[in-house]
Amino acid sequence: MHALDILYRRDDKQLAAYRAACTLKTCPIKESYYAYRPSLSTNAAFLALFSFSLCCFILQAALSRRFVGCTIAMVSGCILEVLGYTGRIMSWYNPFNQNGFLMQIVCLTIAPAFLAAGIYLTLSRIVITFGPENSHIKPLSYPRIFIPCDVISLLLQAIGGGMASVASHQDKSPNTGDHIMVAGLAFQVVTLLMFQLLCLDFMIKTLRRMRTMGEAALDPKHALLRGSTKFRAFLVALGLATFCIFIRSIYRVAELSEGWTGALIENQHLFIGFEGAMVVVAVLVLNIFHPGYCFREGYVQKKYKNLFRKKGRRRRRSADVRDEKASPVRDGSSGAATPVQEVAENGI
C-alpha cells in the first residue's frame, strides 16, 4: 500500500502533526498539501504580472479619474492575486507548511469575484453608448442585478474559506468550509453565464434594430465614441476577460468539489493553465484596453459640449450686464449705481 494511502487513514490531527514535522528531505513530496512542489519560476512570473497589473490599474485610475468602482474592484482582485501567489512561493520553500497553502487557496479562490464585479459595472455604460432602447432591461439594472449576486458569491467563498482555514488550523476537517466555497463558486458560474447571455441578447437586439432602422437604432449622442477603434477593442477585451474568468470558475468548481486531496487539485499543469493563465489574461487585457482610456472620445465630446454651453452662458451674462449698465433705472428712480453694485462691478 502507498504511504499516502496509509497517511490519509489517519485522523486530521495526526495528518496535520505529521506534515508539521515534515521537510523536503524527510518526507515524500506526494504527502505535502499539494502533492507536488509549486513551481518557483511560474509562480514568480504570475506574482510579477499581477503586481504589474495592480500598479497599472492604480496609475490608470489616477490619470483617467473615471470608472472608480471598476478600478476599486480590479485593484482588490489584483491584491488578492498577489497575496495568493506569494503564498504559493512560500510553499515552494516548504510545501508541508499550512500557512502558505491556506493563503493561496483562499486568496486565489475569491480574487476573481472582485474582477467579475469590475466587469459587471461596465455593461451599463456600454448599453448607454449604443442606446437603452436596444436592451430588454434598463442600463442601471445591470449592476443592480449582478453586483448583489457577486456579493453573495464572494461572501459564500470568503465564509467557506475562513471556515476551512480555521478548521485546518485546529487540525479538523476543512470539508464543510470547502463545500461552502464550492457553492459560492457555482453561484459565480451561474451569474457569469447569465451575464454573458444578457450581453449576447443585447448584441443580437442591437444588430436586428440596425438592420431595420439603420443608424437611427443607435443613440446619436455617442456616435463618435462608437466609431472609436479603442472603444471597439475594449468590447473585445471585455468579452475575452469575461470568458476567461468564466472558464476559470468552472475549473475551480470541478477542482474543489473533489476536496483538498482530489486529482485536479494535485495537478499543477491544470492549475497553471486554467487558474493562473486565465486570470492573468483577464486583467492584462483590461489594463491594455482600460475603460477610462477607451471611453475617452465620449468624455472629450461631452467636455466640448459643456465648454460651449459655459461660453454661451458667459456671453448671455455679459449681455445682461451691458444691458443693466445701459439701463437708466439702477438705484431706485435715478441712474446711480448702488454700493452693492459698485462692489460687484469693481471686484472689491
Please supply descriptive tags for the structure shown above:
348 residues; 75% helix; 0% strand; disordered C terminus
Report on the architecture of this protein.
The protein has helices at about 5, 10-20, 40-65, 70-95, 100-130, 140-170, 175-215, 225, 230-255, 270-290, 290-295, 295-325, 340-345. By secondary structure, it is mostly helical. Helix 5 (about 100-130) runs parallel beside helix 7 (about 175-215), helix 5 (about 100-130) runs antiparallel to helix 9 (about 230-255) and helix 9 packs antiparallel against helix 10 (about 270-290). Mean pLDDT is about 85; it is low at about 1-10, about 305-310 and about 325-348.
Topology:
Layout: H1 3-7, H2 12-20, H3 40-64, H4 68-93, H5 98-130, H6 141-169, H7 175-213, H8 223-226, H9 229-256, H10 268-288, H11 291-294, H12 296-326, H13 339-346
Averaged pLDDT? 83
Count of helical segments? 13
User: Which consecutive residue ranges, at least 5 long each, have pLDDT under 50?
Assistant: 1-9, 303-308, 323-348
Note the beta-strand portion.
Answer: under 5%
Give the termini separation: 96 Å
What does the radius of gyration come to?
29 Å
What is the gist of this entry?
This is Sphingoid long-chain base transporter RSB1. The chain has 13 helices and no strands.
